[in-house]
């Protein structure tokens, strides 16, 4: 159940991010015939938390954001 909720949360967050980046809602025409359009989705699995789908974009770039990033443990030896 937690995996399903995580999947839905991540997919919704990615959809909102893409809508904000492109400037129009899903299943709508792009404003002004923009070349930056939605182009389906590809399956993604990260760290076996949940399987999600990430929307593909034609000729568009957006900053990569990782939502469920576990804290990084750095193994550093202190020399004093």
Write the layout of secondary structure elements.
Elements: H1 2-22, E1 38-46, E2 50-57
Antiparallel strand pairs: 1-2
**Average pLDDT score:** 67
SS field, number of helical segments? 1
Radius of gyration: 17 Å
Q: Report the helical percentage.
A: 25-40%
What percentage of the residues does DSSP assign to strands (E)?
Answer: 15-25%
Structural domains: how many? 1
**Largest pleated sheet:** 2 strands, antiparallel
Termini distance? 48 Å
H/E order of the elements?
Answer: HEE
Q: Report the structural category.
A: alpha+beta
Shape summary: elongated
Total number of beta strands: 2
Model regions low in confidence, pLDDT < 50 over at least 5 residues: none
Strand order of the largest sheet: 1-2
Key features?
single chain, 80 residues, two-stranded antiparallel sheet
Structure description:
With 80 residues, this protein is α+β, with helices and mostly antiparallel strands. It has one domain (2-57). The chain has 1 helix and 2 strands. It has a two-stranded antiparallel ribbon with strand order 1-2. Strand 1 and strand 2 (50-57) form a beta hairpin. The radius of gyration is 17 Å and the shape is elongated. The mean pLDDT is 67.
């Amino acid at each position: 159940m937690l995996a399903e909720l995580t999947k839905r949360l991540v997919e919704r967050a990615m959809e909102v991010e893409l809508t904000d980046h492109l400037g129009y809602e899903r299943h709508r025409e792009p404003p002004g015939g923009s070349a930056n359009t939605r182009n389906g989705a590809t399956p993604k699995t990260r760290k076996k938390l949940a399987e999600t789908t990430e929307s593909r974009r034609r000729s568009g770039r957006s900053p990569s954001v990782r939502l469920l990033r576990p804290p990084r443990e750095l193994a550093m030896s202190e020399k004093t």
